[in-house]
Design brief:
With about 375 residues, the chain is an alpha/beta fold. The protein has 16 helices and 14 strands.
Amino acid sequence: MSKILIIEDEAAIRRVLIKIISEENETYKVEEAEDGLLGIEMIKNNDYDLVLCDIKMPKMDGVEVLEKAKKIKPEIPFVMISGHGDLDTAVNTMRLGAFDYISKPPDLNRLLNTVRNALDTKTLLVENKRLKKKVSKNYEMIGDSDAISYIKQIIEKVAATDARVLITGPNGSGKELVAHWLHEKSERSKAPMIEVNCAAIPSELIESELFGHVKGSFTGANKDRAGKFEAANGGTIFLDEIGDMSLSAQAKVLRALQESKISRVGSDKDIKVNVRVVAATNKDLQLEIKEGRFREDLYHRLAVILIKVPALNDRREDIPLLIEHFASKITKEQGVADKTFSEQAITLLKAYDWTGNIRELRNVIERLIILGENQVSEKDVKLFVSK
């Protein structure tokens, strides 16, 4: 059923519009508002698939209604109703986001075609939004423990915003996975997500890696080179293991966050960048701040939203699901027959001390898939997994 709201101060025109639209399709539910103020209240409190709105009205005209409604619920298509003298205004409303306009008195075929097209557009927008929320199978978060369920809820709330996120947790626990979920569920998902492992880049090269450099700025700089921040423009930059970043590089990252601009090494020219920053670390940054190894002002810039990823030992109830997931994925990758795990094998794996977290579990499952029997048994686990 499609819900349609008609905002029109003339009762006779409202009646005509309601009659035409209701008779066209019995699944259309049509509601009415006699002025713009009431229309805005109804839009706030209801979900409409289409709004038909007059331009000339007392209390609040149609242009103001359109502008306010687009801030409240930007996805609702608006069709403006214009009198003869309102045509220029009606055209201008399309620049403000209106779907179309119809003239008074409404032509039957024109009105119904416009309504159908607007509703089709709304359906496509909703479907696109739903598809965008689906995350690539490469980055699925497996588990339904309280800790993982909570993280998923946080991601759902935060992903659509540009809020900076700091992800903490031990090595191998899945911090990168959380970063990918945030990006793929965001409005930036069509733009790149650029990953930087701050611990893997020598401290003397980290600034060049992040911000780029100009030719001749240091030995080996044979040509101008863009950095990761420029590459991530419009998308997300993921600063993994940010606790290992030098204080000098931290100062430049802080400036990029404060001013949304960077400068390449060896250049004094500013470059505007529009990136969302997601950072991760396995270190206690509060301790790093006390020891003088991490900037407190940068920490507070990064930690707008904090997500703590638990160690696998703290979410053992997810291990059976993870075993099933990895077993299915690995048998396909290795081109071998599907394998199952006995209850005794799963019980042993649940009791194992997973110091290497999810990464270690995946490696163990791969080992058991390759070396174990068709049904991986307790014996296989004891033989191939013991430390």
